[in-house]
Amino acid sequence: MDGNTALVDDEATGLRRSSADSPGLGLTASDHARRRAGRMTVAMMTPWDQQCGNAEYAKRLVAGLEQFATVVPFDMQNFIDQDRRIGWGEMNAYFRDLVGRVNRCDADIIHLQHEFCFFARRLGPSNCRFADVMRRLKKPVVVSLHTWLRSMSPTQRRRTTSQQWANVLHRLRNRHISSALRRAAAIVLHSQETHKLFVEAYPDLKKRVHVVPIPIERVASAGVKPPFVKSSRDAWVMIPGFVSRYKGHGHMLAALQHLPESYKLVVAGGVHPKDKNGGDYWRDLIQQADVWGLQSRILFTGFLNDPASQAAMLEQADVFLLPYDEVGQSGSAVLADALSFDKPVITSRARSMFVYRMDKDTAFSSIAVDVGDPKALATVIRSCIRGEDTHYPEMSAQRAIARKRYCLEHTQAAYERVYREALSGGQARC
Fold it and tell me: Which long-range contacts does 87-93 make (Cβ < 8 Å, 24+ apart)?
């Protein structure tokens, strides 16, 4: 979104939207000239001007897509984050306006970033609304599924009466999202693991599904001073991203007790401003640090709004740690950020942490450990920082291969194939 775009209040809904979302979309004469020269126009339905991981991902993705397309964002709300309940009529008016503007826009194809909270607060209404939106969109739609819930996978197929009833209930529970996905010209997932689960649930849609991992692309930060500067005596174990309960910061607090005093935990991020439970989790972390006497060994940076400043902060890490719980993520933008630096990366065994490790020459681009064992985690951290990771001698080389293989340029090329094949009615191979 350029500097001339402002956020305005929608009088019909009371929700905020971007002025770039108006029917004219702010397309310039040069935009139309590029289209005539063979460039396509993509309507991107996604959170945009918000403090949101999906918004950050969308902006980085758009930077690559603009090599071959004019991308026009349509800001989507996170309804779980709303401070007030939104009535049925108001919700209808919001989506009627959103879909109407997308349908009227000068776009060749629509790319919808899907999370359940973009359509309603609860799962059932969200799936129903998603199906309704897909029915009413009048252009080919590419859907990116960022989360795969366990309830969306069928139970094991058996001939017992109880199992047959379970399969019937599964189909009933997922009938709306099933209807929505069958209207998509293409479906994008971020990992082979999610692809496996998807195809098990919807084998008839296999040819429409493509795996395009979140790109590993470092944000330029040359000459930018970080908000905090590391002492030459310290070693920084860094957990980047929003501070949320599923990210497991407590595992590192426990491990910190088994590491030298010079080892510091840097929490490079803050509580999501709209996370209603984030404050409780933050207090829990501080309380545990107080109990264990770790106050001087933990640095909370708070939310880092500027990408270049954030990148300059991350550059100082000695090792990255992502001790995440299993939450159904198809991929992790924070993992992609960590791998963009030539630093060791330690993760939990959550399935989303293996996205970039499914090739023989990137299998050890990061290390997955039992983060629930403080002493074992501390041992791995110490060996990585001291360069004693003898079990993984090719880690640096494999990280470099992962950065090259999953770079933004390759992601852009994959999406171009998906878009063009979807427009032509064929299927892309990515």
Answer: 90/13, 90/14, 91/120, 91/129, 93/12, 93/13
